[in-house]
User: Which sequence fits this backbone?
């Protein structure tokens, strides 16, 4: 308990640290020297340590900050950023951070909606995985080892090049999302109704635990291997690499987008979509995104619903299917484009499609993303009554919603067949679709960001009657600190169980059990990390 108290008290730490620094006779008592001493390769670790004194500190820090809400002068900054070149740098950083009382924030792609991979309220160090991003593909066995620092686009690029377009990985739409965070939280994308979540296709992993041990699936055991595939990043250790199952895709997919305004019966169509889309064949991904726009006819505000889908097959197969299942949408050949799987990623992301090299661009800014944003998610288990949509539209007509969107993403297919407890991700059979509410604003509006965040809370409150209840389910990779926060990165079991049930439902208990086994002192922690069970911990001591 003594060291627990120590590691959770930043003020005590500061006192002890400066004291020991001042009287230090041993180089090891300085954090930076500790890193050099405890890495097996001291000459190279100094090349990957950035303190505020290094001229590239800010550019390294800012490199993957996606949400400018967390890039203000008052945002807490890390004492050091380490960009490990190999596992021994990770081991040294864990050892020295524990010794000197720093918290570690792990960053792969930096897309965390709440910036938890690079912001903390207590003295902290960032381990940025950017240099660990190799992708090794075994085409014959349809598997790949991919390191956490790779982005989805790098994995995709290599799969397509090496398989000549015959293989794919069922992951997300945005190429700059990092493998480390994405796989840690589940990960859905265009192929998830056919092949499940990305994490359902993970077959091995390499993790460095709090003791600095490098564990593969066999060494970590099935409980921990279960926990890291959807239990959320930053709780169990530093994931270095993942072995994933690749899947076959046909040479031709078909995508379409059809837009309808309120005047074109958008409300009726969305209402109907709710019962049609979740039952479409597994070959479909189907979603609707609504925004508010000025009508091209009279300039008055209206709602624009964009119905989009991807289909693993050609146009000739798709059209009759849609005519049978959803004739009201009025899909015609002209709405459809045939393309390869990799082109479908660029199409959905509204990215240029001339060259695949764009997939390797880690600085690519999505045209769909505002500089600052706040997002929330919900799951819908029975269709929302048609009348209720009026309330949603009126929220979108409020001033703050100029850059807001609400998305509906159909579940069903393979997602219904995987057990709720197969991985920590519990939102399987019984869910018709997921909703995502996002509100965006310009960087310069940051001072007024609270207005936009309040808008998202009002919408969320309105939606409460129509979505899943007890618990109200949420997607961990759409992190939302509003649904239960532990102050200053401290996690307690009781607080954790509020958001824990929403993200993980009954799987939360097993996650707490695993956490208690592998990191009982709660070294790997953030505002929504899995807390250890303190009472069980005490019992173990007797
Ligand atoms: C533009 C955009 C598009 C998105 N599209 C999709 C989508 O299509 N499908 C989908 O499912 N999600 C999507 N997401 C959500 C995304 O999956 C999550 O934000 C995910 O956690 C991001 O991973 P990251 O590595 O980029 O983020 P990071 O911010 O680096 O990490 C996220 C969390 O995981 C932890 N973590 C990171 N790396 C490691 C590691 N190596 N070991 C242990 N813990 C680690 C971090 O500490 C943090 O808590 C999108 C997000 C954005 C911003
Ligand atoms: C940052 O500065 C320290 C000394 O202050 C130096 O040891 C280290 O090599 C520098 N890091 C880089 C990446 O240049
Ligand atoms: C940064 O440089 C100043 C002045 O040289 C020094 O006092 C301080 O300890 C350095 N900080 C770090 C984190 O290296
Ligand atoms: C030491 O570093 C090398 C890379 O320089 C790495 O391959 C090796 O695994 C490391 N050894 C240990 C014991 O960490
Ligand atoms: C690669 O794919 C293209 C298009 O599908 C095909 O025409 C070509 O023959 C394939 N090349 C090889 C080497 O398989
Ligand atoms: C909207 O639906 C009504 C019937 O519900 C129909 O008469 C009308 O033509 C539709 N409008 C459009 C633009 O499709
Ligand atoms: C929509 O109309 C309002 C006023 O009617 C105007 O202020 C706004 O700029 C318009 N938006 C767009 C995107 O044209
Ligand atoms: C590629 O982009 C062009 C221009 O946006 C578009 O017309 C074309 O349909 C796209 N091709 C595919 C396969 O998406």
Assistant:
């Amino acid at each position: 308990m003594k060291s627990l108290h120590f590691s959770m008290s930043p003020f005590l730490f500061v006192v002890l640290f400066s004291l020991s620094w001042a009287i230090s006779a041993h180089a090891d008592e300085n954090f930076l020297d500790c890193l050099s001493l405890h890495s097996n390769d001291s000459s190279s670790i100094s090349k990957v340590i950035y303190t505020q004194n290094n001229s590239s500190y800010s550019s390294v820090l800012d490199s993957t900050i996606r949400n400018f809400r967390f890039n203000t002068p008052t945002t807490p900054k890390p004492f050091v950023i380490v960009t490990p070149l190999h596992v021994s740098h990770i081991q040294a950083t864990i050892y020295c951070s524990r010794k000197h009382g720093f918290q570690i924030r792990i960053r792969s792609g930096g897309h965390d909606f709440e910036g938890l991979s690079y912001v903390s309220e207590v003295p902290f160090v960032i381990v940025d995985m950017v240099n660990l991003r190799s992708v090794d593909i075994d085409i014959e066995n349809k598997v790949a080892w991919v390191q956490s620092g790779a982005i989805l686009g790098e994995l995709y690029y290599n799969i397509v090049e090496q398989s000549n377009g015959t293989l794919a990985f069922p992951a997300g739409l945005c190429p700059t999302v990092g493998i480390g965070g994405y796989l840690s939280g589940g990960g859905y994308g265009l192929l998830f109704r056919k092949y499940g979540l990305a994490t359902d296709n993970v077959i091995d992993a390499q993790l460095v635990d709090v003791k600095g041990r490098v564990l593969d699936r066999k060494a970590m055991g099935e409980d921990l291997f279960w926990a890291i595939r959807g239990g959320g990043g930053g709780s169990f250790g530093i994931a270095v690499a993942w072995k994933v199952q690749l899947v076959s895709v046909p040479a031709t997919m078909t995508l379409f987008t059809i837009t309808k305004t309120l005047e074109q019966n958008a409300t009726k169509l969305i209402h109907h979509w709710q019962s049609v889309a979740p039952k479409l064949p597994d070959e479909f991904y189907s979603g609707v995104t609504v925004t508010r726009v000025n009508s091209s006819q009279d300039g008055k505000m209206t709602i624009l619903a964009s119905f989009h889908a991807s289909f693993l097959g050609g146009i000739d197969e798709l059209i009759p299917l849609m005519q049978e299942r959803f004739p009201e949408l009025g899909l015609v050949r002209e709405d459809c484009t045939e393309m390869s799987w990799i082109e479908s990623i660029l199409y959905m992301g509204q990215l240029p499609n001339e060259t695949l090299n764009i997939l390797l661009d880690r600085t690519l800014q999505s045209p769909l993303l505002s500089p600052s944003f706040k997002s929330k998610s919900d799951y819908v288990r029975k269709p929302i009554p048609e009348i209720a949509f009026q309330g949603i539209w009126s929220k979108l007509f409020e001033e703050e919603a100029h850059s807001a969107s609400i998305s509906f993403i159909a579940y069903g297919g393979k997602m219904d067949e995987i057990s709720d407890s197969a991985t920590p991700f519990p939102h399987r059979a019984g869910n018709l679709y997921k909703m995502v509410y996002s509100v965006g604003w310009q960087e310069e509006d940051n001072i007024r960001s609270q207005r936009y965040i309040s808008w998202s809370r009002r919408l969320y409150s309105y939606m409460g009657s129509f979505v899943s209840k007890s618990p109200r389910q949420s997607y961990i990779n759409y992190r939302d600190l509003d649904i239960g926060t532990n102050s200053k990165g401290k996690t307690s079991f009781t607080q954790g169980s509020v958001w824990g049930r929403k993200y993980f439902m009954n799987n939360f208990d097993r996650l707490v059990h695993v956490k208690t086994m592998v990191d009982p002192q709660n070294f790997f922690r953030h505002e929504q990390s899995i807390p250890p069970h303190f009472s069980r911990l005490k019992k173990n001591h007797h």
About this structure: The first helix runs from residue 2 to 7. The radius of gyration is 24 Å. The first strand starts at residue 49 and ends at 51. Residues 29-130 form a domain with the Uridine Diphospho-n-acetylenolpyruvylglucosamine Reductase; domain 2 fold (CATH 3.30.43.10).
